[in-house]
Amino acid sequence: ATKGWQVAATDIRVAFLNAPKRDTSKLTACEIPSVFKKVGLAAEDDVWIVQMALYGLGSSPKDWSIHRDQTLPTLRWEREEEGKQWIGALVPSGDDNVWRMIEVDNKVEEHRWVGVMTVYVDDLMFAAEKEVIDLVYAAISGVWALSDLEVASDETPVKYCGFEIYEDGQHDGFHLNQCMYEKEILKKWEVGSPIEYPNCRVA
């Protein structure tokens, strides 16, 4: 890892509800939950017309990912460093789930790579200097509501896609493990001690 970098994670709240439905040629309607009828916000025979991506609709994950990937490259941040005015942006890396954080100084036609962001549906993880992470977080939170930023330390991990990421005690790298996930699996399968042979059971 690069000296001085941090790893941090957040998630986009109610992500799907931020994305418009791509297919507008068909009307999608759903029954209104009874609690809305009970408090008088809807009549018994009312229905909702779905205009945005909605959890449970088969097309919603794709609607969200397209909307997300069209929005991220439009975001910008600015900072001054070393007497230069840097403008930052997120650039696709060629991998669907990885974005490069770059900064450009147009006056001297200089650009630099300052970090990386990974995306898994609505979960985001950043690796960069703290100032860059804070600026990218602020840029994204300008368009979508985000949960609080979790930052990896040597005692508290960032949890991302089943992994725990800890900062090295010397602040010059990171440790990656799946201890919590492994404990969960051992508990699920009621494994209390090691075995000397493969043990396949069907749940």
Can you walk through the features of this model?
This protein has 203 residues and is of the alpha+beta class. 19% of the residues lie in helices and 33% in strands. The protein contains 4 helices and 12 strands; from the N terminus they run ββαβαβββββαββββα. The strands form 3 sheets. Strands 4-5-6-7-8-1-9 form a 7-stranded antiparallel sheet, covered by helices on one side. It is flat, with a radius of gyration of 22 Å. The model has no long low-confidence stretch (mean pLDDT 91).
Indicate the mean pLDDT. 91
Poorly predicted segments: none
Number of helical elements: 4
List how many beta strands DSSP finds: 12
Helical content, roughly?
10-25%
Order of helices and strands: EEHEHEEEEEHEEEEH
Give a quick summary of the entry:
The protein is of the alpha+beta class and 203 residues long. It has helices spanning 34-38, 60-71, 130-141, 179-188, and strands at residues 5-11, 29-31, 47-49, 76-81, 84-92, 98-105, 110-120, 123-129, 150-151, 158-160, 163-167, 174-177. The chain has a 7-stranded antiparallel sheet, covered by helices on one side. Strands 10-11-12 form a 3-stranded antiparallel sheet.
